[in-house]
Amino acid sequence: MTSTSIPPAELTVLSPHDGTPVGTLPCAGADEVRDAVATARAAALDWARTSPEERGRWVRAAADALADHAEEVAGLNTRETGKLPQEALGGVMAGVGTLHQYAELGPVHRGHSLRGHALASDYTVAEPRGVVAAITPWNDPVAVAAGLLGAALVTGNTVVHKPSERCPHTGARLGEILAGVLPEGVLVTVTGGPETGQILTEQAGLDVLAHVGSTATGVAIAHAALSTGAHVIRENGGNDPLVVDDDVDPVWAAEQAAIGAFTNAGQICTSVERVYVHRAIAEPFLEALAAEARRRNADQALAPLVDRRMREAVHAHVLHALEHGATALAGGTIPEGPGSHYPATVLSGCTEDLPVITEETFGPVAPVRIVDSFEEGLRWAAGGRYGLAATVLTGRIAHAQRAIAELPAGTVKVNNVFGGAPGGAAQPRRASGAGFGYGPELLDEMTQVKVVHVEMPPTP
């Protein structure tokens, strides 16, 4: 894979709220990217030799620095991506918490003692891989970046970070804050669009390519790694199903569906992207879900989509569904005025061949298909090319256990669309990626294991 385009000189971001310019940043070209990788490589040996405890102290200091600038970074995030202020601040503080978590976990990340000869020692050592390229998304830019950066740094790797071109000011300021308290060269940030990202992933001096974002970009990164030999970690797109059984309260189920489909305007990797509801409760469920959507639209409780390009893609899925027999019970039209707002939308009468069902829409859209049994809903939910997460709402333990066993997803949630314990981790499947992208297991992804055998020489 070779670079085919030269990055533009600058990157301008427009506000998704009203279309006004947020600011302009330079795009890193081939020379700047090579220099960034070389800087990280030059710092790698000393950083790897730093004790895990000391690295933990550095990462903890970086977390504290981010906390001191939380309001500033959250404000940039809101201006660039449209994220609601409270949610943007929550994302920054989640990033602070993640950095603190890895600062504690890093020093206790350890190898294993192996059982060999009684007069020999056998064990494994976890060593840093080297230089990590972290390519992070715009929909939760600080929290996601903090996970990859924290795990990489605390295990002794240096990092070149490329934030999304949709929030470069947020990513650049994050890099300034963190790098400002870390040893020189340990964390380097480059800004730019897809061209800059492609140049970065093709660098031979990288040991890890860590990516959270679209499936198409993840596939391109995996192809690049075939040439460079870099270890790949990627969490990519999802098309997460929600299966609603006939024994649950339809109003509560509709609230769960609305939370899953409309939070952050549907711009979450694990958003509910398709709903399979049992025919026995379909009518009250759809009424309640449409009411939830209309309430959010009336209260203007939804953030805008990140830009008009995203809005066009979301609306194309909705229009295609409407042209092929679906009905909009709420939303479904582009509002007048500036910015890239899109209403919470409920589609009934959806069939399995619609892109709004088969692909990742990534907007505040809840496409609903009515099924005649829980088994039918489970069968449809298990289909498709993605495997990020799935949710079932049921009061039957047998149905819950069957869903857990049969749904081919990295995460299965029962009776809570966004439930999960602290420290959880998951392996995406199929087109949704590969490797652990967060949690304690990410420390394993960022290290490589060396097996050691030691015994005494023969006595003369």
UniProtKB/TrEMBL annotation:
SUPFAM superfamilies: ALDH-like. Pfam families: Aldedh. The keyword Chaperone does not apply. Residues 10-452 form the Aldehyde dehydrogenase domain. This is Aldehyde dehydrogenase family protein. InterPro entries: Ald_DH/histidinol_DH, Ald_DH_C, Ald_DH_N, Aldehyde_DH_dom. Keywords: Oxidoreductase. Residues 1-21 are annotated as: Disordered. It comes from Citricoccus nitrophenolicus. It comes from the Bacteria. The lineage of its organism: Bacteria, Bacillati, Actinomycetota, Actinomycetes, Micrococcales. The keyword Oxidoreductase applies.
